[in-house]
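Here comes just one.
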Amino acid sequence: MRNDRTRGPAGAGRAGRAALTVLAGAAVLISLTAPAAPDPEPAAAAAPAHTSVNYAVAVDQSTSLSAEDIAAEKAAAARIALGDVSATSHISVFGFAAAESDDQRAVDPVCPRTRLDAAGRESVGVCVEKLRGRKDGEGTGTDFPSAIRQGVHELTSGTDPAVPRVLFLLTDGFMDVTGSPQYGGKTHRKAEGERQLAAELKKAAAANVQIWPLGFGDAPDKEQLDAMAAGGYQKGCVDLPSARPTATKVSGAKDFKPVLERIFAAAHCLRYQPGPSKRPPATLPVTISPLATVGSIVVDKGTPEVTVTYTDPLGNKVPTTGSFEDSTFELAGGEGTVEALKITDPVPGTWKVAVKAPEGHRSLPVGVSVLWQGELQGSITMDPPSPQAGQKTTVTMRLQTREGYQIKDPADYAGLKVRSRLTGDGFTPLPLRLTDDGKGPDPTASDGSFSGTVTVPKDADGALKVIGTLTASGLSADTRSDGGQVSPGALPVTTALGPVRGAGHPGDTVTANLSVTNTTNAPHTLRLSLADVRPGLLTVQPAEITVKPGESTTREVRIGIGDEKAFEGRLDGTLGVGGVVTVQDATDGDRPLVRAPLSIQVSPAPSVLDRYWWALVGAVALVVVAVLAVLAWLRQRRRRRDPHGLTLHLLSEDGEVLSVHRAGHGRKQWYAFDIAEAHSNPRIERRTSGRFAVQRSPEGGAVLRVNGRGRTRLTPTGQAELTDRLRLALGEDSVRPDPDPDSTTDDGDGEHL
């Protein structure tokens, strides 16, 4: 995965693709029992980007809650409005307690139904300030039936039933209607309140209203909160346990922020990425995934006097409204205690949020987090695509980003659910179990490739289709299919394609062998093509192969890697490109013979010296003495620059030693590393394509290389900046490398001391 991207015309297409994002709330996209078809089925039809949600927020104003809890409830209501990523969502906010006389009411409308565009989110941030705790004589009980009735009314009156309906109930969970005459005589009010609560929960479930209780106070009634969560509509935005309504306790006002964000993310199928919390002035980093197509950076300022600036991973200070390069920005809550910067098509990587405050307003910590939605795509294959009845076929579904790159980090698709089914003529659909555990048909665990086998029923007699659906909370659902045909017997042309994997640089070619046997007395034309790969990244040659009658041969298939422009400047390290190689028999009605997944690892082109070193060696080989001299010089140079034995000290900005790491031999005299857990327990870890690298300097000390910043001389007693908070120094016990650096060829994993 990359952490940067090239700006320019190529990025405009990326912004357009973001408009095709399918929200994970549309998890059931295409029936898995659809009729079989011979052609591959693309991703599910696109829905409007960032599908909206209708919210209602009910805030308990009874005297059982303290003033601090009421303040936390108000901040939570504002956060709900600011955290949403869709400008077409709507929200209404109301307070509730109880009506204990004819001139009182149980519900206090505060914010009418408001569209959550930029202006609407600002207005909600203002109107929630009207919420307050009730005083004696104003009706201080807790009327849950009235609150749920009001919430259901707000969510169903004049709204589209296809839009998800979510009621957030902010309360301590203790119902008290003993002072409310509308519940009958005093001795029967508690029982009548419970009866009406059960009835209102049934109505909420029937109206598809989810209820997400958030428990405030010292000891909220968890049993009551759980019952209300279970009483509403249970089907979440995706068919995953994490999306089902649950009740959550908040342990004090300071705890509500991360708790609320996790609940909000689950209710709306968003991904939640927490960040650090510090007192201003400070720079707070937060990471946006390469899968994100839209997100909100939410900043808890604590006080409105805090000012915030945002810097993207490329080092650009971005605007808070309008467009910049390929991204669109919209700020809400800038004048309040919580603000959110919504970003469409954000640059992936680590963002820096700089917070400042004037003297007298720096006592409260400022926290940062990200709520985001993303897009996940897959490719699916059957091998063989035209099996005989009773024969096994292996089904593989491979994950990739919306731009066609393989997914390296399993955390990017955590919680993923893969469903697959084989359908076809003459038999009942068969479910498939696809796993990524490295067992059975799955060659490698946790590589984003899910595999399984299925036996084609003996009564299958026509078309076949395998369908797979990927579902993950916060990521768009993707449905893919691969079609084939049941072979009535031995095929006239049989093929076997060797492994289609390899590594290279832009402009290189990777090869695979295609074995072909024609058992007929007529020539057959085979067509080769690529699927599920972005145009320009890869090509396949030849496009057609003619097999003579009775011929049995092996042909070379060439996979060409696109040029540098095709990768939009993403090659700051090795990048995986996936897709599918298809071979069809054009002479036999385009019968599919091969649909094989391919995996090409693309890395930056080597330097001229790396590519043509052999020419230099060949030129000096004519003079033996010169050859020996050059080799001796190269050996000495390697020894003088070999980083093995360097002791690397990771320092804080105050000079405190945070970790010590011993460098190994490295690669090409560079020992590459990165900083793990940079914001909690920072330490140096060896990584082949790390952002940082060191080598010895012939003049003493070392040379530090930082991707994107060039090289810096590091003296034996000096320090060099790694990040705005971390520095690097050499330990006094750094030793010279091995006398013969060529005696080992490992890359040097290094060790922690």
Summary: The longest strand covers residues 366-383.
